[in-house]
Each structure stands twice: as C-alpha cells, then as structure tokens.
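[job 4417] fold queue: 2 targets
>>> target A
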Amino acid sequence: MLSALLLAHSAQAAVVGRTVPATALTESRVAGQPEWLAYLARSKALMATDKATFFAEKPNGPAPVPTAYSAPAKTMPLSRDPAWYASAEARHVADVIVSFQTPAGGWSKSSPRDAGLRRPGQFYLLGRTPTPGDSNWGWVGTFDNDATTTEMAFLARVAAQAPGAEGDAYRKSFLRGLDYVFNAQFPTGGWPQVYPLMGGYHDAITYNDDAIGSITRLLADVARGQGDYAFVPPALRERARQAEARAIECILATQVRVEGRPTVWGQQHDPLTLAPVGARNYEPASLASAESAGMLVYLMSIESPSPQVVAAIEAGAAWFKASALRDKAWQRSAEGSALVDKPGAPPLWARYYSLSTGLPIFGDRDLSIHDDVSEISVERRNGYSWFNTGSQRALDEYRTWSARSKP
C-alpha cells in the first residue's frame, strides 16, 4: 500500500516544505519555571567549570592532540571475556578513560581510548585546542555516538575485576559519570545530545543514534545493582531507577500522534513542548524509523511493563508494519543513489516520514524538503542513509515479545 502511494507521489515530485531549525533552550523560553531555570543555571555553572579547569592547566610543552577517529566499540569493547578486563591492556584503556573525563563528569566522542593518557593542556575533544576567547565550546561532554555511556560501562566492567583499592579510581570515575547523567536529565525526563548545553538542536531531547536508549539501558543496569554495577550504593541505585522511570514517561509522552493515533518518535524533540524538531539542514522534523526501532526494542526490554508501555509498543509495531516499503531497494551509486524496484527484497524503511502525510520525506542542505529522494542533490543522496532495513529488528523483537507476553 505504502509503495503504491510512494509511486503516485513520485510521479508528481515536489518540494513539500522547509526544515525549521530547532530552538535552543534559553532563560527566556523557561521564564517563570523554577525547575527549568535551575537546570539552565546548573548547565552554565558546569560549563564555566569545564572551561576554567582546562584553561588553568599548564602543559609542559605542546600538548599532544589525537588525530585518529575511533568508534567507541573499537577501543572500549564490552563483549570480551570477563578475565580480559583484569588485563593490563584493559586497565590502560580504563586509565585513559579516567584521564579524559571532563570536570562536569562526561566524555567527548569519537576519540580513541587506547592511546596515551591525557596530558595537562590537551583538549578533551578530538582534533581541537580552543583558546580563552574561543566561543565554540561544544561536544566536550556528550551522549552522541555512544559517548559517556560506553566509557561508563567499560569502567564498571574493569572495576568488577578490581574489587580492591586498585579499582577505586574506576569506581569513582563511574560515579562522577552517573552524577553527570543525573545532572543532564531534563525536568521532562529526556536528555540533550550535548551537556553542558551548547545551543541549537543539540539542546533537544535526542533519540538520534540511540542516545536516550543507551542512557536508559545503563540506568536500568545500575538500578538492578547486579554484576558490574553491584558496587553502586543503594541510594544511587534508587536515583537511577527514578531517572529511568522519568525517561519512560518522556518516551511515552513524545510518541507522536497523527490524527489521534499513536505512531512512533522523531529523531529529536523539543524539551519543553515535546514536539518533533529539525536538526541539521537536511534533517526535518518527522517520524524517524531507525531511532523509533531503537525505542521499541528498549520498551520491550522493560520487565513488567505498564499498560501504557504495552500500548506504546503495540502502536509502534503497527506503524512499522504499515510503513514498510515492499519490493524496493536502495541502490548506491557514485552518479546518484536511487530507490529501485526489486521484487522479493527485504522490507525497507525510509529514514524520515512526514508528520502530516505519513509518506517518506527527504531533506537537502538548502533546507528544502522533498517527497522524492531523486530530487535532492547528489551529494546528499550519496552522503546520508535515507533508507534502512535495520528497522526490521523491531518487528523481529516484537514477535518474540508478543509471544512471551500474551497467553
């Protein structure tokens, strides 16, 4: 059904809108709301401390700057045999992690954690060394690209293999990271992409790249207080449980309703209104398939889910079934990637779906939004993941969850 509608719309391709950038979280937006004003004051104070601490450092000679990008999973693996986390190699990675923790308690992203320890004057973020007058102070602490949550999980794993005093530094760093997570949580229950806040869409509730999913899963593990997280004090376990509960409320509240019917989630949502918002020029406010698949998988992992959570799962699964493109494939090409007919191909989902029509939409760098992917620039067509088959994981998990949950 959706494939037929898509074909009809493609025959009359059009610019269907323009991406509206997200609004930063500011004092003027939260005037008269003490809880929000306190949140912003805390964010500003932590950023000021981050800056002051860094600029007060006196490096001995030029500080080294890491030059190689690295995905967290490569230098902070979480799937090794437990004994490996007691090795000198794992301890070195943990030491590097501790050395790069910001004063606020978080970590930057995309930086290797298996190289040298951070030296005084070396910036927390890959490839940058700001000056005191530099206004571009961002990504210093973030949940993007699995940052912060991966560092914390790795520290907990190493600490579990160092139960004595030799593991105290790792446990202390983990607990500082946990405090960072608590500080960063919005009063409405979600988390920004970057904290302390840096403005723009980075201030939005961020489902992109499974940021909130990774935080909530970590909090659930901490709340259980088992295995790697048995060292966390009971009071902090309870705080983690409460933070996860507030996050679930936020996830349920941000599930988008179209004509009164619950569907899925946006890539990011305004922290105050909870409505989906745009991010980069080519990322419009929309329903986001990959991020929503991650949210459904997380909700299905909740033990003893409430009726509200069950209803959200059922609605999300129904949306994925109805929104799949059949007998289509995304064919990559240097001349211009394209959506092509391919009978028998696995179900395919567009990255973004219109909040009004429910049909796939595609953004370009000039802020224009199109209903036909072939109408956007070749550079954006080839440089972004406009379609995915990975959302099938949500339906696969749903089948298992449904069989387990229903008599």
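>>> target B
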Amino acid sequence: MSDNVVHALAGAGGGIISMLLTYPLVSISSRLQVQKDTTSPDSYKDGVDAFQKILNKEGVPGLYSGLNSALFGIAVTNGVYYFFYEWTKSTFEKSSKSKALSTGQSMIAGAIAGAATCITTNPIWVVNTRLTTKKSFTEGEGEAQPIGALGTLIRIIQEDGVASLWQGLVPALYLVVNPVIQYTAFEQAKNWLAKRKGKLGNADFFLLGAFSKLIATSLTYPYIVIKSRMQLKQSSDESQRYKSVLDGFRKVLKHEGVAGLYKGLYYKLVQSVLTAAFLFMAKESLFKYTLRLLMLAKMK
C-alpha cells in the first residue's frame, strides 16, 4: 500500500474523530450562517441562544442533526484531500533535493487537492447543510419530521434536478484557498518549528493545526456564509435568491450589512480551530499506527 493511500486513510480517520468531538459547534455555526430573518421569535440572537433553543425544541439530538452524513462527508473529504495532497507533495519532493516544500509548492499542492475534493464531495455537503439547518423535511402527522440523508438526497434530485447537488460549488472552489492557506501555514510553521525543536509531538501538531486553521478561516469566512446559503434550496423570492457569488454578496450587504457576512464567525472559528487541531494530531498518530500495522502484516 502506498504512503498516499495510508495518508488518505489516516486523514479520513482523523476527520471522523475531530468531527465527532466538535459537531454541536458545526450545527450552531451553520444555522447562524443561513439565518436571514432575525426578527422572528424563533430566530437565533447568538450562539448561546441558538444552543438553548435547539435543546428546548429538539433536545440533544438537534445538536447532532445530519451527523451521519457529516461523518461520511468528512471521511471522504479528508481521504480525497490527503490522497491528492500527498501525491502532489511526493511529486515535488522527488523532483527536488529538499524534502521540505517551498511556500509555492505547498500552495499548488493545496490547490490541486482542494479542487479535486470540492468537485467530488459537494453533493455530500449540500445534503448535510440541509439536514444540519433543518431545511429538508417531510410532513408527518401533526408536524414536520426529518427525512434523513437518503430522503434528502432523493428530494433534492426530484425537486431541483441532479445539477442542484453541485449548488454552491463555485464559492466552494473559491474556498479552495482556505486549505491552501491552512496547509501552507501548517507546512511552513512545521518546518520552522522542526528546525528549532527537532522531533515534533502530538501537542505540537495540535497547536500547528489550530494556528493554521485560525488564519485560514478568519480570511475566508464571508465565502463560507455565501456557500452555505447557496447550498440551501433557493427561494422563489427574487430578493432572497442568490444567482451567483457576487449576487449573494450584494444581497447580504444590502439586507444585512457587513455583519451578515460574519454570522456565526465566533463559533465557526472555535469549531474549525478545534477540528483542525484534533485532525492534525489524530492524523499523524493514525498514520504512524497504520504504517506499523502494515509492517507487522508484511512480516507475517
């Protein structure tokens, strides 16, 4: 088994662990991102209010709406990303005398991996966004009931066509810059720290992951908001429908002001930083254990 595949498996496992640990923050930040009307009694004033209302109306399961699709999505996303990232990285390393990637090489590797991941996994995140924000229901007896990931997928295709599974792909491709920034910052900070400290441990990878994700998310958050809204079923109301990324920016600024582009930022930052920190720490450990298991298997 090639190192690229081992990295992909370790990345998928690390993503699952990090998502399980931080998913309630995903739910809260996602609901705040897509909320346009803040005057309704059911609207969320902030993250704490969202947390309380979700618990009161939906209980603890409400904080984990769409978890199954998110775990599947993060496993596929990280698996695809790490496979292409490590494949590109190894190509650069073979053609260079130095094993440390330059800033430009890190950015190219991140861009290639990010684009491949976006195109492959966008349908998963369209389904997950609608599940997480409770935007896909079927009428039961007395009240609306969630229809699950498969039911949501079928409904999207029936009502909006297969192409709608790639709603929000354009801002998602713009957001390729997020992991580019993240992994570039991570690689350069790791190289800098390794030169001064030598061998790095789990705590170092935790802090490096947190640091790199903090920078990336802070710089790209408005696009995250637009992407989340474009992944929802678009309104028939012309003033509420986003025809493009630029149109989305214009309408958010017109109706909600600059603050509308940063809804849920604090909780997204906390979630993203913790997820990245746990991911990098778990991924490095899983990579080492997987290599050991493979070596043991070969010896037998």
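[job 4417] complete. Note on B: The longest strand covers residues 137-139.
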